[in-house]
Amino acid sequence: MKLGFVGLGAMGEAMATCLLRAGHELTVYNRTAAKADALVAAGAKRARTPAEATAGNELVFTMLFDDAAVQHASFGPDGIAEALGPDAVHVGCATVSLNQARRLRDGHAERGQHYASATVLGRPPAARAGQLFVVLAAADALRARILPALDAFGQKSFVVGDDPVQANLVKLCLNFMIFATIEQMAEVFTLGEKGGIAPATMFEVMSNSFYTAPVHRNYGKLMVEKAYDPPGGPMEIGLKDNGLFLEAGEDFRVPLPTASLLRDRFLQSYAAGEEGLDFVAIFERVRADAGLR
Amino acid sequence: MKLGFVGLGAMGEAMATCLLRAGHELTVYNRTAAKADALVAAGAKRARTPAEATAGNELVFTMLFDDAAVQHASFGPDGIAEALGPDAVHVGCATVSLNQARRLRDGHAERGQHYASATVLGRPPAARAGQLFVVLAAADALRARILPALDAFGQKSFVVGDDPVQANLVKLCLNFMIFATIEQMAEVFTLGEKGGIAPATMFEVMSNSFYTAPVHRNYGKLMVEKAYDPPGGPMEIGLKDNGLFLEAGEDFRVPLPTASLLRDRFLQSYAAGEEGLDFVAIFERVRADAGLR
Amino acid sequence: MKLGFVGLGAMGEAMATCLLRAGHELTVYNRTAAKADALVAAGAKRARTPAEATAGNELVFTMLFDDAAVQHASFGPDGIAEALGPDAVHVGCATVSLNQARRLRDGHAERGQHYASATVLGRPPAARAGQLFVVLAAADALRARILPALDAFGQKSFVVGDDPVQANLVKLCLNFMIFATIEQMAEVFTLGEKGGIAPATMFEVMSNSFYTAPVHRNYGKLMVEKAYDPPGGPMEIGLKDNGLFLEAGEDFRVPLPTASLLRDRFLQSYAAGEEGLDFVAIFERVRADAGLR
Amino acid sequence: MKLGFVGLGAMGEAMATCLLRAGHELTVYNRTAAKADALVAAGAKRARTPAEATAGNELVFTMLFDDAAVQHASFGPDGIAEALGPDAVHVGCATVSLNQARRLRDGHAERGQHYASATVLGRPPAARAGQLFVVLAAADALRARILPALDAFGQKSFVVGDDPVQANLVKLCLNFMIFATIEQMAEVFTLGEKGGIAPATMFEVMSNSFYTAPVHRNYGKLMVEKAYDPPGGPMEIGLKDNGLFLEAGEDFRVPLPTASLLRDRFLQSYAAGEEGLDFVAIFERVRADAGLR
């Protein structure tokens, strides 16, 4: 297929690499042009604007850092909307707020354009290996055009609805579950440690009995090893994504006490000067509350 | 081996059945004698007191409902302590408070007797299938005598320390993780539902991506199906075991905010008249807080 | 003094009335012009724009509903900034976000204009009686020009700093204390009620012993009488102002667990369809959690 | 009147002193006899057992540290119950658990004896000055015999019901409100401090506007002055009394999220080695969470 890709951070670059490797004809754009060099060397075409990465393509993916960046790339000058053809689809992959997801959906709809949301679960190494989980929400008629392309970077795609916003909501939920599980393990490791059970022992029991999911094994391991730095998932992402989840709760009038607790936990980490660490380092705040170290 | 078993509730009866099936010579005791009938018919010997279930055996297991019951069976009249030989071991399997675990350890130690704790993770059907996870804490010299017997009802045994109390602490932690995961999924299902994603869809994505552990799949399924009644794990157990976890936190001076939140959630369920349901029904309180139903 | 007043909601109208009564020469503006009729009848001059309410005056007060309204009246077309003289001061009285307070401070500073913040504590009847508490933050040199005017509607003015934003921060804190005290009394009334002590009895003891502040007596009375409708302080204000307090916590990296709990409580009230009631009606959610009614 | 008094800690000694000063004929008992010396020098009669402090008196007051102490003094050997005449009343003043209050009520009822509960609000200096607030729950027929004596140490007595347990419930509620108000002020002082408002400034505004109750002025002052040591109200009392409040919530099935939050806060203080300080020192944990000091 003829595809465009806008946003070549660690995740975007890995996903674009998969698309190229799968044989698609790919045009890429990144604000800092150098980040596209490896992809261009491998055969991608370089675009100088999001519009250029869009023109003539069947799908254009965006994987940008936050609401503002994706809004600008979509509807700003030389943005995607200026070049998106009537049969083409803008496929948003970033973790944005529900309000931003709505702005993307509505902004394209007003222009008679197609928009879909395909959020992804996994870190850059999984992306590079084509092992992401993908959550797609798109009008029924669009899905067949999008799903095959997703296979390049995803091990499995779930269709959750017609309204693109739904893929963003599911993604916020899945991210929250990571943070909540880390807090849960942190409380357990800390109580265990003060009661004479090393975190490694607790982890061994837990992750080989009822708590065998990647969320336990991957994040629990990072906690036991205190592998906080360099961060795989930065604290900033934790605070931001948990905040988006809370915001969604406010939208839909849903009290979310576990997320409220996590909000305070992330702020505690920031206040302790740990905002540069991986978000699993909230474990240190749970430990500090219990007088450890 | 020659074994005794005291406490034939749903879990105890299933565990004892495994021991008998594995070829051990088994003597069983239950306060309500009729609960022993099936085991006796299958070849177990019936004891009229805990002491009788102990005399002459290498190991005597207890699987009783609460602190008071296990204390009485151990040190009350005609209790285990009256008959436990110098080379025999009392192996406590119940989920009791840390203080009760200490009373068992110290009560036997004062009498020059051996005590070990082998707590178990899993519900009755898993017990019956010999598929429990077992957490053993026992003095090094005792382990070799106990571990082979545990294989009858456990798929895997973890040794977590010398002090029996440690197995109880690990067990309280593992149980807490069940409740915390249910609360977590309840918040996610509820937010999803108000945002247009059915719980079944959310569950499908979650349990086939990062959240594939038994704790997700088993309890998430019960929640999606609202399989609250009859309870597999009664609300009473939730309130009690979460309370024991909080009590352990107080012992060791560890703030446990997620467990504090769960305490209020269980009380909310009781106040709503749902104390007769499975503890996954706390989901209904999360939904009610969000105005659902 | 020659004064302008922009924003004649219940609070603004009451405050402006006091200023007029105190003998000041007053020009008033409100988007819905009819709200100015009574003041004009009593001697105020009517302005057709915020700029008109500003031109030629020594001080111009704003008392508008939210961030957007005050931003528009200040810097929009025909806004205050267009007409504010070099010796005049814009005195913001509304409860706005810290970010909005910063925008007001910086927007005027960029134009070489004076801005001060004088937030007020009290409901409309107190305003009308000149019994508000006023929290002023202003550059030292401006204070003497502002304080005398504040006496018209305030029983007492506190100066808390040079930076206008500080008055907004103090105001957010004081409002939060109202909500937190309501939650606190709600938990106590509910526990008492289930234990056989009527809320009126508990209120009698509390408000005549250690808990004698207006915050206890005024709000406690509303709770005991379930005087929820019409709302003196609408639920919307509770959710909004508590949200601004949490936002301030995020700004300054301060975990605020009591406010987090209140956020969920307000959402619970919204979800229960009680968003039209007074914010003391969160009491009903505390009662519902305990199975009352 | 002829009165007995059992338990001469700081509070009990002050209350007994008031009774003596008011002209009552007083017999006193304390486990450590020396604590009675000053009272005996001032005219009280010394008893060697609780029973001796009871025999022949119209009322016998108890003001002991905890459940166990009051149970022992009441129903242990040489306890109050052995000597309490048919027309006399045991008046319990200590802050005990509801279960202990029930044991006292029921234990005396079984013996055909009278029991009333008169819990007190205030610290030792207030007690000495006869300025306590007293919460009485007693059968109607007993009140007239008790109330006059309470005037010796109380500035005001409230009657809250017939069942003695009710006075204990009210007392637990009032104590909780102290802790919750401290937490509330701690969050506000901390946010203010990080935003450039000194706690003393915030306190000045708060305690002279809407937050003028003793609970604000007394505890807020201690916080601003960091007057933690020696403790007027020890941290131990905070953890204990908040725990009794939570226990009451569990009894009556009432979720109490603010108290849950306080439980974790007190544990945090213990874990930080601050268990020897006044309970207002939980302020330091709120500050630490925000990275202060």
What can you tell me about this protein's structure?
- 4 copies of one chain form a homotetramer.
- In chain A, helix 7 links the parallel strand 7 and strand 8.
- Chain A has 293 residues and is an alpha/beta fold.
- The mean pLDDT of chain A is 97.
- Helix content of chain A is 52%, strand content 14%.
- Chain A contains 13 helices and 8 strands.
- Chain A has 2 domains: 2-162, NAD(P)-binding Rossmann-like Domain (Rossmann fold, 3-Layer(aba) Sandwich); 169-290, Orthogonal Bundle (N-(1-d-carboxylethyl)-l-norvaline Dehydrogenase, domain 2), CATH 1.10.1040.10.
- In chain A, helix 11 packs antiparallel against helix 12 (257-271).
- The first copy, chain A, has an 8-stranded mixed sheet with strand order 3-2-1-4-5-6-7-8, with helices on both faces.
- The N and C termini of chain A lie far apart (55 Å).
- In chain A, 62% of the residues are buried.
- At the B-C interface, helix 12 of B face helix 12 of C.
- Chains A, B, C, D: InterPro entries: 6-PGluconate_DH-like_C_sf (IPR008927), 6PGD_dom2 (IPR013328), 6PGDH_NADP-bd (IPR006115), HIBADH-like_NADP-bd (IPR029154), HIBADH-related (IPR015815), HIBADH-related_NP60_sf (IPR051265), NAD(P)-bd_dom_sf (IPR036291).
- Chains A, B, C, D: It comes from Acidomonas methanolica NBRC 104435.
- Chains A, B, C, D: Residues 2-161 form the 6-phosphogluconate dehydrogenase NADP-binding domain.
